[in-house]
């Protein structure tokens, strides 16, 4: 049985001068202390203490071996998204980050799957960056669940998702920049309460806006952190869709009929919660996610899956790796489509 972790972060060794490619002041960079520890930085501000598994591929593979993880999909740390920056600078930054992620994963190409990031504040530019990254070898794209006040059902972002479907690039959506910050001071409440709320909001937005009707069914889309609170509240959304025309105004189907359009990871940390998640999503739509290497992640990868009541051996195998193998499997036309899109873009800029 192959064990694949779809939710694992990286912050390549990028110094402060490199961070200024994105923005002057508040630039993201990594301060490495030389003793196996470091600090994620935002300009002069210390953001989060970290350990070398975040930037050292050898340490990461050693941790994977110790935890029984065969493969990780490697995505940038959300601090690196750069969505508030000027788009052209953000595109240059994403190209730099994406190159470093490719180099990081090249250290163990059979164990580490690189995911790119894009300047989602400019969806057309994001399509260009994603296309280049796919042609260069990235196996997916990692995005935040919103850009400022624009959710994933924003027309431009919907077009970006459709573009990813056309070039066969899987999408991993991660909550970030959580809502209600003024009311969630202390105790890591943005992570404990804001992340589930952000993720549920993103999924419901795609369902109720009719966005899923406009996105090709071939899109492979996964939401981190177990889809947030969606599994517990989906019945509430269905009830509202059936009873109020304002809820169903833009969506021809109730929310529960769209659960076959996306995946979620297993990062819910309670076998009982995971059982509900599997019942709502099916065993074909949940994949192992640990949030490595951060402290709120699953320290024993797959323990919640193995302890989940009601899952048989076949279901456990799907959650531990089988579904991820299908999610990240290259499609026959993915690389040619990405390369053709690059050629078209180059030709257009030259003419």
UniProtKB/TrEMBL annotation:
Molecular function in Gene Ontology: aminocarboxymuconate-semialdehyde decarboxylase activity; hydrolase activity; metal ion binding
Any Gene Ontology CC annotation: cytosol
UniProt KW keywords: Decarboxylase, Hydrolase, Lyase, Metal-binding, Zinc
E.C. no: 4.1.1.45
Domain Amidohydrolase-related: 4-328
Pathway: Secondary metabolite metabolism; quinolate metabolism
Pfam family, one: Amidohydro_2
Highest taxon, organism lineage: Bacteria
Record-linked InterPro entries: ACMSD (IPR032465), Amidohydro-rel (IPR006680), Metal_Hydrolase (IPR032466)
Transmembrane regions: none
Enzyme class of the recorded protein, top EC level: lyase
GO biological processes: secondary metabolic process
Membership in a protein family: Belongs to the metallo-dependent hydrolases superfamily. ACMSD family.
Subunit structure of this chain's protein: Monomer.
Protein's recorded name: 2-amino-3-carboxymuconate-6-semialdehyde decarboxylase
UniProt organism field: Actinomadura montaniterrae
């Amino acid at each position: 049985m192959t064990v694949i972790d779809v939710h694992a972060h990286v912050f390549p060794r990028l110094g402060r001068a490199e961070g200024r490619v994105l923005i002057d002041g508040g630039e993201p960079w990594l301060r490495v202390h030389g003793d196996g520890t470091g600090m994620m930085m935002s300009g002069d501000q210390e953001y989060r203490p970290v350990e070398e598994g975040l930037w050292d591929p050898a340490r990461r593979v050693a941790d994977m071996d110790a935890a029984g993880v065969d493969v990780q999909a490697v995505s940038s740390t959300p601090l690196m998204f750069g969505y508030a920056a000027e788009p052209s600078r953000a595109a240059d930054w994403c190209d730099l980050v994406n190159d470093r992620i490719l180099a990081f994963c090249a250290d163990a190409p059979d164990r580490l799957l690189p995911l790119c990031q894009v300047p989602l504040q400019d969806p057309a530019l994001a399509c260009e960056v994603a296309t280049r990254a796919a042609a260069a070898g990235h196996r997916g794209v990692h995005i935040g669940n919103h850009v400022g006040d624009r959710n994933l059902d924003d027309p431009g972002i919907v077009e970006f998702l459709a573009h990813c479907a056309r070039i066969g690039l899987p999408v991993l959506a991660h909550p970030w920049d959580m809502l209600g910050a003024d009311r969630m001071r202390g105790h890591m409440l943005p992570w404990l309460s804001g992340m589930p709320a952000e993720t549920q909001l993103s999924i419901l937005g795609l369902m109720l806006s009719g966005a899923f009707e406009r996105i090709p069914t071939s899109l492979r889309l996964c939401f981190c952190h177990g889809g947030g609170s969606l599994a517990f509240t989906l019945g509430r959304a269905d009830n509202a869709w059936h009873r109020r025309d304002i809820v169903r105004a833009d969506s021809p189907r109730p929310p529960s009929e769209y659960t076959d359009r996306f995946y979620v990871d297993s990062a819910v940390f309670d076998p009982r919660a995971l059982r509900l998640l599997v019942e709502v999503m099916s065993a074909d739509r949940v994949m192992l996610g640990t949030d490595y290497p951060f402290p709120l992640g699953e320290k024993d990868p797959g323990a919640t899956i193995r302890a989940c009541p009601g899952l048989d051996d076949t279901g456990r195998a799907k959650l531990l790796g089988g579904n991820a193998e299908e999610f990240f499997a290259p499609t026959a036309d993915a690389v040619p489509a990405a390369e053709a899109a690059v050629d078209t873009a180059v030709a257009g800029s030259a003419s």
